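Deliverable D2.4 — example input (structure tokens):
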């Protein structure tokens, strides 16, 4: 069953239950991140003097304010990436189930697709069937850092944490990781519309290249400067209203809105070398470009950073689309 049909079924079953009273959220403009305020460049100059920023850190922050992203070359050691990739390969080739580990969007040779497969069920598949699913699915794994020491080492990478703390101007906590093997071809979106963060936009995505990526492999596509756009107008009670709680027609309207908005900005492809990291603002428009060669992998590891206490997911009321 697709995410969309699951969402519809959930809403139909929930229609018989009393609707909860939803909290009215108030967004205080004064609580916005420093980089989203009109005086961001003046603030940056003060920070440069007060914090004695290096030229490299100053330029990174200046680019963040202007474009909503930055690229850090060789931020993650390739040896750590290789160890994580071996752990990912063992998910498919191992013989001992890992409790709690799940693989998402696994395609079966009989034509079916399973949204979520526990590791024990995956290993119960025949070896040939398992290999076929591995090589023909757009599979992904969430929170692999819970099951792999090597993934946890990248998750706890001090330089990535330092850079996110530098951007936020306050502590940063990593979370919400995703491992990909192939290009996602994900529709254009903004991470803010998926997460529940208050105040909004205290959110940084980190896309770690686990191999060199070519244009034929369906690289990440993004639109510099689009982080300055406002959130979709119908998400007028954010963080309660976003893609996770939207009705199916609102999800379609959102994606059409983002696609139209992206046309005002330059389209960029992220074509990194192994170990490079793209850091992006929660509002920058991005997605997965078309996979031109389905035999090519696009191994990546995505981590999201939020300051402590600003993830308010537990205060948001469902039903949820995923």
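Example output (designed residues):
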């Amino acid at each position: 069953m697709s995410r969309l049909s699951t969402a519809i079924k959930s809403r139909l079953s929930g229609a018989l239950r009393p609707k909860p009273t939803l909290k009215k959220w108030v967004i205080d403009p004064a609580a916005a991140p420093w980089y989203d305020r009109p005086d961001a460049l003046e603030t940056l100059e003060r920070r440069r003097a007060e914090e004695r920023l290096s030229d490299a850190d100053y330029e990174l922050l200046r680019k963040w304010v202007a474009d909503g992203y930055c690229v850090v070359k060789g931020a993650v050691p390739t040896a750590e990436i290789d160890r994580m990739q071996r752990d990912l390969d063992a998910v498919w080739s191992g013989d001992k189930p890992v409790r709690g580990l799940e693989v998402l969007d696994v395609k079966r040779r009989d034509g079916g697709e399973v949204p979520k497969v526990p590791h024990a069920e995956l290993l119960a598949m025949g070896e040939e069937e398992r290999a076929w699913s591995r090589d023909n699915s757009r599979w992904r794994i969430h929170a692999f850092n819970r099951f792999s020491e090597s993934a946890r080492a990248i998750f706890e990478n001090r330089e990535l944490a330092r850079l996110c703390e530098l951007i936020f101007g306050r502590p940063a906590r990593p979370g919400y990781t995703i491992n990909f093997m192939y290009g996602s071809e994900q529709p254009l979106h903004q991470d803010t519309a998926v997460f529940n963060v208050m105040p909004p936009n205290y959110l940084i995505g980190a896309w770690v290249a686990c191999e060199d990526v070519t244009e034929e492999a369906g690289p990440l596509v993004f639109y510099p400067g689009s982080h300055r756009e406002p959130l979709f107008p119908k998400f007028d009670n954010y963080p309660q209203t976003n893609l996770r709680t939207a009705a199916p027609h609102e999800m379609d309207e959102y994606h059409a809105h983002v696609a139209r908005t992206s046309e005002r900005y330059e389209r960029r492809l992220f074509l990194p070398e192994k170990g490079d990291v793209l850091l992006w603002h929660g509002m920058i428009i991005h997605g997965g470009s078309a996979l031109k060669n389905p035999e090519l992998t696009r191994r990546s590891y995505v981590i999201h950073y939020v300051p402590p206490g600003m993830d308010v997911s537990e205060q948001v009321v469902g039903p949820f689309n995923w």
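DSSP finds nine helices and eleven strands in the chain.
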